[in-house]
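Technical note accompanying the year-one report. For the benefit of new consortium partners, we illustrate the data format agreed upon in the data management plan: each record pairs a sequence with a structure-token string. No post-processing was applied to the example shown here.
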Amino acid sequence: MSQPGFPATRLRRTRMQDWSRRLVRETHLGVDNLVWPFFVIEGEGARKAVDSMPGVERLSVDLAIQAAKEAAELGLPAIALFPYTEMGLRDEVASEACNPANLICRAVRAIKAEVPDIGIICDVALDPYTSHGHDGIIVDGEIDNDRSLEVLVRQALVQAEAGCDILAPSDMMDGRIGAMRAALEEAGYINTKLLSYAVKYASGFYGPFRDAVGSGSMLKGDKQSYQMDPANTEEAMREVALDIAEGADMVMVKPGLPYLDVLSRVKRTFGIPTFAYQTSGEYAMLSAGVEKGCIDRNTAVMETLMCYRRAGADAIFTYFAREVAERLKASA
């Protein structure tokens, strides 16, 4: 399309007033685009700060119910739950992950009983439950893909039985979406959704999260044999294509901000609901910048989330979800 040059064309014209900027805005961020992740611990009336994530706390189930009510009142469509598993319950084969009465399953049941209309997303991965901090089962010094699948499927089934709406496998084992979909169909959980962490990179941005779930200090080695190489994008497309073929309803790109190019390409290519995770490391970096007085919190947070949306994210997992939802509600 040809366009006359200056002065007939002045692109600043539509930037001059707030109403005009809003009128021609290409990308919009709303409460419906946000998912609030939080961490659950044992106890009652218990909250424990995550030192590496200022403002983020682990919550006991009763307080998690209150947080879920707050999320629903703010209009957030879903929350994502992650457990802090006591060290005595962790073992080499993640037995606690398959316990129908484990912390996450109890939290799901309790929240669903009190806040039935909010979506609950559960992580399907073994690192919060293993004594070695890995997302799979170790056999002869290596992560055994197929042995891990057996445990992951059992974990998915107990979470579905507890009432989880969206199972979100983040383990990056080959074939886990197909295995879970088949097991869910056979067990009658035909409407349980699968959000695949299809594109999860072996990233340096996960440290605070591992602190929050208690696996960081336990991790032996690294996760490069199953999480993706940050140098690769074609591989990401293959991962997404495979997971869609196996029955994924939605896919995740994680981390988000350093991989906006991948996020954009996935959304453009496949058109499937595409989520992104604003990781704990991203949260910690922004929080540190605010603490040092280098950046304005509101401006930087809103700009970053808008970038996710512009790149194609339908929904964003963010630890800023509550404060952003409050801001959006106040400005509505």
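Partners are asked to follow this layout when depositing records. The chain is about 40% helix and 15% strand.
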